[in-house]
Design goal:
heterodimer, A: about 210 residues, B: about 70% helix, disordered N terminus
């Protein structure tokens, strides 16, 4: 019970720190011109050696984006349809004319995600789990970039007396759970001040321009 | 980011040293920290998600489709019972599930539901419905030689 609370507290602290970061404002002029209502998330491009990264990541992306107020196309069905049209490779899909995605799905915008880092490093006494993603939202009809974000989340464990450090670092490296880190990266990417303006299903729609 | 790092270090350390000693006051602080953490960041949910994300994880990572299907149905059923909003894509996913099971009418009905609640899905749902109907007429033509194949159509 207690360990659950501790984990939960860590997550909560992580969330808090996610809210506090206040980097430079981003240019949303193109975004406000096109006002996308729906977003299709295409196959995630993996630039790491961890082959399971896109499969693990993909379960975390629909919810935060839908909660921002956008219609998010069902990711699994999207994948199947793209495969049906011979588009199984993420690298290929990311190079595709975005107009094609408009024809196939009727989506206003397409989200292209690239996983840049997804690793756990275990160095004797400490271990670090890292995820890093690039997010790029494009207007499907014109290919214009509407919004982009780059997020890295790292979590280290270790510290204290040498024996407990070794054990804790080894356990973290072995059980590296990327999901909470991926979720935190998504939250940092989508939630103000650096995030994505609210979409039509969010109560803040059209009223949150001062938050960015 | 830094919060998570220092936070975990601090609390893990504390856990390790206490070795199971009950420290009720500390637990209360945790609960408080969690509550503040959650309240500070998350607005109330627009949708009822249930175990939607676990379902996707099952589909992509464990390839456990029966479990994923069960989670999907659970999300839809609970949301409907409690009159909560269904997440985007859930009706469409369920429609596809019915299609795989050979229930073409059910599939079309759920694709229509998705379109009704989320007009943004209209073009996509219309295409899916057309394809389901196309399969229907295809299999009607081939019914004589391939009657046994009509169940369990794969995408």
């Amino acid at each position: 019970m207690k360990s659950i609370l501790i984990v939960a507290a860590c997550v909560a602290l992580g969330l808090l720190s996610g809210c506090v970061v206040q980097p430079a404002k981003i240019d949303l002029a193109a975004f406000h011109t096109h006002k996308p209502r729906s977003i299709v998330i295409v196959s995630v491009l993996n630039e790491t050696t961890e082959i399971s990264a896109p499969s693990v990541f993909v379960s975390t992306i629909t919810k935060p984006l839908a909660e921002r107020g956008y219609y998010v196309f069902p990711v699994y069905l999207t994948d199947l349809v793209l495969r049906d049209f011979g588009l199984a490779e993420a690298g290929h899909i990311h190079q595709l004319d975005t107009q094609r995605l408009f024809e196939l799905f009727g989506a206003d915008a397409a989200l292209f995600i690239t996983i840049k880092d997804w690793s756990s490093k275990y160095i004797v006494l400490a271990s670090t789990v890292v995820v890093e993603m690039d997010y790029e939202l494009k207007d499907t009809r014109t290919g214009t970039i509407l919004w982009r974000s780059k997020q890295q989340v790292a979590q280290s464990s270790g510290g204290g007396d040498p024996i407990s450090m070794v054990i804790s670092a080894a356990i973290t490296a072995m059980l590296a759970d990327y999901l909470p880190l991926a979720r935190q990266a998504n939250n940092q990417a989508f939630i103000p001040p650096r995030g994505l303006p609210a979409g039509p299903y969010n109560a803040d729609y059209g009223r949150d321009q001062d938050k960015f | 980011m830094h919060g998570a790092r220092w936070g975990s270090k601090k609390y893990m350390k504390n856990d390790r040293y206490s070795l199971g000693e009950p420290k009720p006051n500390y637990s209360k602080f945790m609960v408080l920290a969690v509550t503040i953490g959650l309240a500070g960041c998350s607005a109330p949910s627009i949708y009822h998600w249930g175990q939607f994300e676990d379902g996707l994880h099952d589909r992509y990572v464990s390839q456990n489709h029966p479990q994923a299907d069960a989670y999907l149905l659970e999300t839809i059923t609970k949301a409907e019972q409690r009159n909560l909003r269904i997440p985007p894509g859930a009706y469409a996913d369920y429609g596809f599930l019915l299609f795989k099971r050979g229930d073409r009418e059910g599939a079309i009905a759920y694709f229509e539901k998705e379109k009704h609640f989320f007009p943004e899905s209209g073009a996509f749902m219309t295409k899916l419905i057309e394809r389901v109907k196309q399969k229907e007429s295809d299999s009607a033509e081939k019914q004589q030689p391939q009657a046994a194949m009509t169940q369990g159509t794969q995408p």
